[in-house]
Structure formats: structure tokens, C-alpha cells
Amino acid sequence: MSSGRQGPVVRVEGLHKSFGHIEVLKGIDMEVDEGEVVVIFGRSGSGKSTLLRCINFLEEPSEGTIEVSGLRIEGGHRIHSKREQIRKLRSHCGMVFQQFNLFPHMTTLGNVMEGPVTVKGVEEMQARALAMEMLGKVGLSDKADEYPIRLSGGQQQRVAIARALAMEPDVMMFDEPTSALDPELIGEVLGVMKALAMEMHTTMMVVTHEMGFAREVATRMAFFHEGRILEEGTPDQIFSHTRSPETRTFLDAVL
Amino acid sequence: MTTQDTTGTGATRSPVVPPQPRRDRLALASAGVSFRAKVALVWIAIFAVLGFLFWSASFDNGWIGEHIGFIARGLIFTLIMAAGGIVLAITLALIGALGRLSRNPVAYGVSGFYTSFFRGTPLIVQLFLFYLAMPRTAQNLVDKFPNSLPTTFDDFFTWSAFQVGIVVLGLNYGAYMTEIFRAGIQSVSHGQGEAADALGMSYRQKLRRVILPQALRVVIPPTGNEFIAMMKDTALISILGQGIESMELFRRAQLLGNADVRPTEALVTAAALYWALTAVFTFFQSRLEHRMSKGYVRTVAGGPRARQRGKAIVPGAGGGEAYGAPAGSVMDAPDEEIGVTGHTHAGGLRPADPVEEDPS
User: Which of A5, B23, B115, B163 is at 20 to 30 A from B107, Cα to Cα?
Assistant: First the structure.
């Protein structure tokens, strides 16, 4: 989306994160280049979600550096002057949550317009057009005036994707986007994500257990194990030439 | 339940039609009458009794008719006081709640002191503190520090009963409502705040656009209750003795009733006026509550309200605050009542009838 910029879209250096005495991330280094689709997988509790949440500072990194679109922020104490930077960084990261987290008091269109209007100060008419375009991308133009409660889980998640896209982020982060969905609704959400990756070449980081999606869409996969990246590679390397026994055990369990 | 077999042996010979206790027969006989109509009848009966008492007590109706206008004009001041008080209370409750949820030690400490003091002392004591003790304290301060304080310092803290009424009601109710607002804000799921954060919203934007609109929905019903309670508590201001130009309802009733030796008539009139006032506001409150449910209730043909009440008839459905009173009364019925509805149910009568007949 942003072009002509040097370096990776996301760069994570020496990231540690502890909750109390429990260290969830034990030193993560990762770079995501433009147009890449990185699938992050691993057992629950291995720190996959925490990584995404540290990248946009929903969790404060205990140690390490996060860089998104050239904006570098050190982890550690959250001091006042850092807040502005964090907000700026967040507006470059689209985030899609497991539980959708749509705003229930706004219509679908209102949800998608909210970011551009409130955060970026885009004019109402312009934001409306942009939001309609995004809803079109996820195939929900006809639901613009509905409130989220009247949509199915799959539709809600697609609106959530449109809401994140409307900020025109440099990277889209998906935190188990299909885990809360009924099996028959998973396909429509993965379909939208696939279109984003294949047709629009969106830079994406996806935490998911959907290995079929990973095999088809991912340019790179990273296996998380006990707070570290144990294995990294293309889907072919991961699935067909698995190196670590832990990865093998996990894949055997989910495939 | 005991069986009253008044028909003798007839009933025992035909077990198809079992003998029915009187309560069951009453329930069956009135099955065609809607719940609302029955409730209306109960109210009419109560009013009939009250009317009879009123008539028997031989009140001076002429006096009431003559002076009700004067007393009723006090409603304006009652309302202004309550409106001013609730605006102040809501403001303080919002600030207080944010303080209680803040990790800033100053905000947390100040809001903690505020709620502790104003919930920990009686309202009437607070009224006297602000009406009598505050100007006196200001006066003493001026005497003690004549050089550093302006001479008008104590004037600034000398308030009329009306002003004290607004401020103290606001402070006192604000302290209680702080807890309501805090709970309302906490009722908004954590994910909502995170979604707002993830979009890059500031704390202020998050509050205004995402958290507060949702908290408001939870907070409005209890705030309405607080407002109604406050309208009644304005009567306490009469103790401070307002001037003639700003007398609220109860003060007018008291003065006039005592002057004309018609204290009972004056009291009854005041009670009726307070009641009418709160009834009107209770009605508006329920309308507002209904309007606020937008986006939370899947609208069906009967409208959101029908849907909400419909939910409540399923025992254990846990419809939250959406319970209509009739449905609640079905569910809260003591054991023997359930026995009745259970029986009539077998007879083809649904226990939920009053709710389902609800035309709204």
C-alpha cells in the first residue's frame, strides 16, 4: 500500500513480554516485507497473539523494539510522550480480533467510517464513500445500514476486516480471525482474506490454526513454541520438510 | 392444596373432570381476561378504597381546590432544583467514575474521598453543613486572614437555600451515581476499548465515541431512578426555609396548611402532586430506555419491546434488565402460584398469556 519506502513494513527486535512472573515472549526477532503474508501458528499459550498485540502496543513490550512503517518505538515503560507515537503506529496497523469487537451502537457503515472520521479527520462524505468501497470489498454493501447484532458471525468478522482496511494500514494483523466462528462461516472470512492477499497484495500477519489457508496463501510461516520462533519457512518447507519434532507433532495434531 | 369436593360423590365417579380447588377455578374462569385488565381492576379497587377514605375523612375539598394551584406552582422550583441537581450529579458521577477507574493516584484519591464523604454522611447533615457551617467557616477564615482574603470571601460562600439544595443534592447523588457510572463503564467489554485503541483513537475519543455511548445504555435506567428519587428529596430543602420567591412544593404546602389550619389537606395535596410528577417521569424514563436499546435487540415483527418481553417468559432465559413487570411476576411467583399456573397449563392455558397478549 505504501510504496517507495525502504526496508520492511514490520520489524520486531529482541521482543520480550512478561505477565507478572510468566515470560510469554522470550526474544522474538522478525521482519515482514511488503506484500508478504506471514502465518503464525503454534499451540495456544505459545505467545502468537501476544506478538501481534505487542506490535500495536495493546500490550506494552517488556523489552525490545517495534518498528512499523519506519516508526520505531522502544518497549518498556509507557511514558506520556510515547502515547502519541503509539497512536500513530496503530493507525498504520489494521487489527482484526477473534471476537470481532464491532461497535454495537453503530451501523455497519458507521463502524467502518469511525476510524477515518475520528482518528484521521476525514470528511464525512469522503469517509462514507471509502467505507462503502471497503464494505464492497468484503461483499457486504447491502448490509451498510444494519446493526452488527443482526449480522452472522462471519458477516461481523468481514465488517471488522472492512473497518481495519478503511484506515488504509500498511499491515493487516489477524488474531485468530475464524476461531470464534461456526464451521460453516469460516470459509467466507478466509475467502475475503485470501482475496486481500492474492488480489490486493496486502501485507498480512495472520495467527491461525487454518492450515489449509496457510498452505494456499502464506508466503512464510512461523511456528511458535514456548515464547520463541522455533521454525520458520515457506509453507512447502514447513509442511513437507519439517525440521523440528515439535512442529511435526503440532502439525500432526491439527492436520 | 386441599380439594373442596362440594359436589359430593359426582366428582369421584368421573375422574376425567377432577375436582378443582377454588383458586384453580378462579384462574380458569378469568382465563379470557388479559393480565393488564386484571391489573387495572386491582388499581381501580385500590383507588375506590382510597376515595372512600378520602370522602369519609371529610376533607375540606374547597380549600384544596382553592390552593392546589399555589402549591402546584412549587413544582417549578422542585423541578428546577432537581434538574440542576441531576446535571451536577451526572457530571460529578462521570468524573468520579473515571477517577475511580484511573491509575492516576490524584484522580483515584480525590474521587475516593468524595464518594466516601458524601455517601458516608446523611443528606440532611450535608444540607446544614453547606447552609450554616460553610458561610460561618468562611467568615472565620476572613477574620483570621484579613490581609490575604478579600472581604467578599464569605459572601461568596453564603448561599440561599435554593442554591444549597441544588449543590448538595448534586454532590450527594453524584457520589452514589459514581458507582453506577463506574459499573456502567466497566460493563462495556474489554474488547471494545481494544478495538478503539487498535484504530488509533486517543483516550478521549475512545471514551466519547465507543465506551460512553455503550455505558450510557446501562446507566440511563438507574440514573432515571436517581432523578425521580431526587425530585422527592427536594422536599428536604423545606427544612432550610426558603424565601417566598423560590419555595418548592412541600414548603408551600406546609406553610399554607399550617396558616389555614388545614395541615392534612395540604399534606395529601403535596403527596398527590409529588406522585403525579414522578409518574410522568417514570413514563418518560421507560420510553427513553426503549429508545436506547437500538442495536442491542434483534428487531422482530412485534418490535423490540415485544421481543424483549417475549424473551423473559422463558424461565431461566435471563433476559437481563429487559424484563417486563408482568413476566417477572410470573417467574417470581411463590410455589403455590406456580402450582396454579402449572395446572392451568395442563388445561390448555399458557402461563405466559399476559405477556404474549401484550399488543406493543
Answer: B163
B105 touches chain A (CB under 8 A): no
Q: What is the grid cell recorded at B78?
A: 422542585
- How much is the pTM? 0.74
Confirm whether the ipTM is greater than 0.90: yes
Cell of B134: 460553610
Best of A103, A146, A161, A176 to disrupt the B interface (most B CBs within 10 Å) is: A103
Cα A216–Cα A68–Cα A25 angle in degrees, nearest 5? 75
Q: Is residue A181 packed enough to be buried (19+ CB in 10 Å), middle (13-18) or exposed (0-12)?
A: buried
Domain limits, chain B: 65-292, 303-349
Give how far Cα B279 sits from Cα of A99, A214, B227, B309, B325, Å: 42, 62, 12, 22, 16
* B65-292 CATH, one of 1.10.3720.10, 3.90.1150.10, 1.25.40.10, 2.120.10.30: 1.10.3720.10
Are A90 and B197 in contact (CB < 8 Å)? yes
Collapsing DSSP states into helix, strand and coil, what is residue A97?
coil
The total of other beta-carbon atoms located within 10 Å of residue B224's CB is 18
List, edge to edge, every strand of the sheet that includes A63-68.
A22-32, A10-19, A63-68, A71-74
pLDDT tens for each residue of B288-320 = 877 766 656 655 444 444 434 333 333 333 333
User: How long a stretch of residues is chain A?
Assistant: 255
